[in-house]
Specification:
By secondary structure, the protein is α/β, with parallel strands linked by helices. Helix content is 46%, strand content 12%. It folds into two domains: 2-145 and 295-335, Periplasmic binding protein-like II (D-Maltodextrin-Binding Protein, domain 2), CATH 3.40.190.10; 147-293 and 363-407, Periplasmic binding protein-like II (D-Maltodextrin-Binding Protein, domain 2, 3-Layer(aba) Sandwich), CATH 3.40.190. The chain has helices at 2-18, 45-56, 69-81, 94-100, 124-130, 154-160, 168-180, 196-205, 216-230, 243-251, 265-269, 307-317, 320-330, 337-343, 349-360, 372-387, 393-407, and strands at 33-37, 60-64, 89-92, 141-142, 146-147, 149-153, 184-187, 255-260, 278-281, 290-294, 297-300, 362-365. The strands form three sheets. The chain has a five-stranded mixed beta sheet. Strands 7-8-6-9 form a four-stranded mixed beta sheet. The model is unreliable at 1-12 and 14-26 (pLDDT under 50).
Length: 408
Amino acid sequence: MLMKKKIIDAVLAGCLLSVPFNTPMQAAEEYDLVIYAINTETEEFDRWLSAAEQACDIRIGVVPAPTDSDTRQQKFTTVLSTGDSSIDILIANDEMVTTIKDTGWAVDLREEVLTEEVLPQFNQTYIQDMITAKDGAIVALPSYKGAFALWVNQKILDLTGMDAIEDQEDFEKFCALCKEQGIYGYGGAWEKTYVFNELMQFVRMFGGDYLDWTNPANLKALEFMKKMVDEGWTPMDQVADKYEQLDQKFIDGKYGMMFNWGTGSDFEKAGMLGEDAIHMIDTPLFEKKTVLADSWCYVLNAASEHQEAAIRFLQWAASPEGEVYEYECFGRYPARKDVETELIDERDMVRRMYANYDENYEVRGRDMMPQAMDHISTIGTLFQQYVFGVITAEDFCASAQKAVDANR
């Protein structure tokens, strides 16, 4: 039965992704709900899907989202913008939700999902920053709580003789000592659609504003990232790297530290997660203690003809039971505070670090423009040109500000 379900889903996905999205699909009629989903290739996806079907008493069809970020975004936007009803719920990242949150293409979830009783369990700052429309509608349901943490390889930290990386001076010292050992002190995912995360993180750490490139702090952050390349603290060739490549290089011991999302599941699979191996540390103080927040979210298509089943699914996904399955199947940290408290041991590294962030750091969603991917690609291309010496830092800031102004 499970194999048959997978074959049906594969046929449906192939049809939906190879023809116009508003073409009727007979295969979709076999389901009460169709989801555009990530994680479909993971070992636990079928377990999560079965749990959702049983809890909601519905049959769920799955359209796997493309792994390429540009293609995934384009498919997502096309479905919603054309009024295509063949997909009911779409799982989207912040970039995708930003693009559509003020369009009316997604259902406001306040009345039936993120109700007055449920909403307080979720991170209010993230909800306001990332998934609340100008009219107050909440257009998505967070599936987990994420933070852009600084990770260190403890073995490399021990090799340098340092105990901690507490501020900018320590950060630079660690990088320099790693270089003496033939190791890059810092590693990044600097592919043009990924580097905005680190650029935004450093801009905020220097006290800047990612959407105001006239701010002198932004220039300091930009120049600091170039300095890491010039000093040999981080490699130029990571301009081709996304997180998959970054994680593997980190596991291989090529980098001493990095900023990254997630709870360390890849490091755990590699036997490299732990206080004596790879683990999270406090984000050092440059000018400001700040951490980026993220999530992948469920978006209900306003054109869906199966909204009753969709609401039932979203209510389950927002429930403690749904959050437990999200954590157990995908290793993603619970978005609900009550589930976090009940499910995660207080000695857990991620829980301790996230609690530290909530208490001692500014934790905010990321600054994004309405045409999110276009803007991200533009800034990423400018950054790579700057790192390669094609343009100056001043050129970068001027062009970045033009891109911000044009995208407002």
